[in-house]
Amino acid sequence: MWRLSRPSALLAALYHPETFPLPRFPLGISTVARAARDTLLGTVALADMQLGLSLDGLVARIDGDRPDILGVSATFGQYDLLVELLESVYAQDDPPLVVAGGSLTLRVERVLLDRFPSLLVARAGGEATIGALLAHWHGDCGLDDVPGLGYAGAPRGGGLAVGRRRTAKPVTRDVTADVVPELDLLPATFDRHGVAQLETSRGCTSYCSFCPRDHKGSWVGAGTGRLPWLLGELSAVFERYPQVSRTLYLVDEEFLGRAPDATSRALELASLLHRAGFGWESSCRVDQVVDPDQSHGWHVERAEMWRALVARGLRRMLFGVESGVDSILDRFAKDTTGEQNLLAVRTLSALGVPTRFTYITFDPLMTLDELKATHAFQGRTDLLLAPQPDLSPAEVVRGVRDARFAAAAGTGQPFYQGISYLLVSMECLIGAAYTRRVQQAGLAGAVTPSMGRVEARYADWRIGVAASWAQRWVDRHFALDYTFKSLEKVLDGAPRRQVREARGVLKDASYTVLGDLITELDTRPLHRDPTAEAILDVRIWQRIENRLALLRGVLAAAVHDLLPVFGREHAALLVTEHRRWSAAGGWTLINAADACAS
Predict the structure, then answer these.
(1) Relative orientation angle of helices 296-311 and 338-351, to the nearest 10 degrees
(2) pLDDT at position 463, please?
(3) What is the pLDDT, as a whole number, of residue 340?
(4) Using only C-alpha atoms, what is the Rg of the chain?
């Protein structure tokens, strides 16, 4: 009974509700919880700050429950919460064994371990780590035997601290068997208008220069053996929330992968989801649609697959286009071209595949000519085509390569309307190849632990000023835009379509701002001058203020038109966020730079 009841573990996820008003199912801690419970060692409880739990409340729960092991998941923008939590926990007389994981902690591992020498840092998915850590607590193995763990010194009191960081053995366990979450927190997530998330693969097939993750170029698909059972369990929860769209968000970085059975596996997964009554969304690379190294037959087969996925419940697919400018794509190591991206967007839209795209508008190494080319590509009206259901996949594959076909099938809608977030700036993440290029160019600044990044100056100071103002514009509207995006995820039919149209109002304004920024940059010399910089700053501020004044009226009308199609709770959420947005003043950044010593 001792081994069944101890250790007691509490797995907690951090959250800033003022930035992200609506929750996502906490897949990370939920999947780790399943792995822990599978060992039959001890007990596991879950806590998620998305679900109304404040940081003070979390600290009070830890103090009251006194878990033996505390696991904390932290992502970008949560460094302040993580540090405050750790300071409170380690101030206890007998603190638990603490392990921190998530996308942020690996980036700032050295900073965290210097500040909290007793901390353990999970450096991989976490499932194998938690299982071995439970065994370690019972004395079944040493800390060096816990896979995927970074640490500095004795993890619990009394030991001799080691002066250098240690990393235990790499993860060898097959994580594909572990992508099954516990569903403890799913009902509470739905109570707060959140969405359900799953994984069907781990890793990524590409080597983008801005990504610091260790799993670049390494992709593994999960098996489908337990998926029908899991879908049944999910259905039982969804049935209690008929107002929630039966949509599962597959957070795979690359849904398809490169295996020989990639197409058949994707179709099998889609069929399982569809038969269980779920729509689904995920992410994919552009070269899964158009690949210059592949034959015409391959492209036709892929076109057939994309249509089949839509017929089997695909609600939308995200593609990381990132740019339409070849020199920028080369710098990002995307292994794609602007023409390839153009053909992929045309192909998907002509096939009727619902899409959204990510696009990095600013990066510190870019030139003004590249920024102008970026603006032009985002504004192109020959990429988003009307669906062509009467054409065969082969006819679509041929047609999208014909400018006359594109002109005849075009919707007239600019490409930027398909981009999830406009005016995005490159973040120089710690450990990324792109960041090293910035450092080599002498443009790197201080480390910002909250975002796991290195601050950077721009090679062209004018673009740096524009990017700074663009980020202020994004941050001013982010919470409201995120609310629109979150509501779109939980709705179906006409309400969902109208929310997307409301988001289009923000996108129109953001694209116009980009044009304003470029116009102002053209008036300033490349040579940096304090007076010229001050003048540019003021002129951009004036333009931004004018655009905001125009946006207020248009957005107020859009919100007014949306409210009648919503239920009471969704309408109340939107009204609250719109009022907050309307009352905001100034142009502050959500994640202002914080020094390593903070």
Answers:
(1) 40
(2) 98
(3) 98
(4) 25
